[in-house]
Write a sequence for this structure.
């Protein structure tokens, strides 16, 4: 109940009074100083935490705004259009991938479709990662899709070089080519770590000692429809 907290506060005050009533004046002054400083720093920590939460929510809102007017995405494997999601569902759960996407957000100015494609596929990439580790996706069926999407994202990111103007540095105050290169390297390194984690999970938890990664397959992997 609402009055339960008041009972707890009264008990704490009585306990503090009982403790300090048997102490010297110097100890009492020290306790008071500690209480005041603690109150000050706790408020600072709470303000800092609230600021971070607000900034994080703003990042997600920004990405959702970026895809707001995107209705369909082309399926390159089956050559038909698929409904574009209305919001990001998984990407926000990983700060590294989120920072990578935000770091190349400047390309939206030159090719919004390419940027939202990358956003879409990284979101699905992390969805597979989460679902494999939670046991919702069979590791042997979905690992190849995970690797395929990783390669697709890397190709898309490299293709951005074609659309970037060479003198964009004087407009934004940073080198777009350097930032793109940094984001590509970060994604390649981090996604390689995620692959290792999945492989370790398969070996230790599922007793899967080898995961096939075949680039050219003689069949269509129908499990992709579950992901997209």
């Amino acid at each position: 109940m609402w009055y339960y907290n008041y009972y707890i506060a009264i008990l704490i005050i009585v306990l503090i009074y009982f403790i300090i009533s048997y102490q010297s004046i110097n100890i009492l002054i020290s306790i008071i100083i500690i209480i005041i400083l603690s109150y000050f720093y706790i408020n600072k920590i709470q303000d800092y935490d609230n600021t971070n939460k607000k900034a994080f929510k703003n990042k997600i809102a920004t990405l959702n705004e970026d895809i707001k007017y995107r209705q369909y995405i082309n399926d390159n494997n089956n050559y038909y259009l698929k409904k574009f999601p209305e919001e990001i569902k998984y990407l926000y759960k990983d700060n590294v991938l989120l920072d990578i996407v935000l770091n190349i957000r400047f390309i939206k100015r030159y090719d919004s479709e390419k940027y939202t494609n990358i956003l879409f596929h990284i979101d699905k990439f992390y969805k597979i990662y989460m679902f494999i580790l939670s046991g919702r996706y069979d590791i042997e069926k979905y690992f190849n899709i995970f690797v395929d999407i990783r390669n697709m994202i890397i190709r898309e990111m490299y293709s951005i070089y074609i659309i970037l103007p060479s003198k964009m540095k004087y407009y934004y105050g940073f080198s777009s080519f350097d930032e793109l290169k940094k984001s590509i390297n970060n994604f390649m390194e981090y996604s390689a770590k995620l692959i290792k984690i999945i492989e370790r999970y398969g070996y230790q938890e599922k007793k899967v000692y080898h995961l096939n990664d075949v680039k050219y397959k003689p069949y269509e992997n129908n499990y992709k429809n579950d992901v997209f």
User: Anything to note?
Assistant: The beta strands are 72-75, 80-83.
